[in-house]
Amino acid sequence: MRKIRQADPPLCPSAHTSAPGARLFGVQVRTGSGERQLAYLPETQPITERVMDLAGAAAPHEVLRVAAHCIGGRCPHWNGQGCRLATRVATMLPVAVSSLPRCAIRPACLWFKQEGPAACLRCPQVATIERHAPDALGAAVAQLELPGDDSVLRQRNVSDSPCQR
Length: 165
Fold this sequence. Notes:
Blueprint: E1 11-15, E2 23-30, E3 36-46, H1 49-53, H2 60-63, E4 64-69, H3 84-92, H4 110-115, H5 117-120, H6 138-142
Antiparallel strand pairs: 1-4, 2-3, 2-4
């Protein structure tokens, strides 16, 4: 397992499984009340077929949270100075947890570097792509979706499924 160092380039916590150097850092699970929330891994894991199989019948980008180096200006969320998605997560989504979750990527996470704890308190409810926003998140999650013609990265096994990055 690779340790993330502070000196490494920032990591996007909403990367695609096929991004160069992609690492799994969390898996979406259902809570006792039926809500979906991120279960953080103690250490990142490389993206392997075994990891991809964790998604089961769901598309991997709906249940796996993956980090990879930020691609800056090649990403539709980059505004020239920072990540618009990080700002939207930190300002538009409701707080999901009362304290910062234990997170293997926080030392290098672009969202944390840019938005601070506000992003971390909302991160557990974020899915890389949410095709059908749950009622609990409503319009805020719907605004996080990309149009269907996003061509920056595409989901590995579903050719018509855009990637968040």
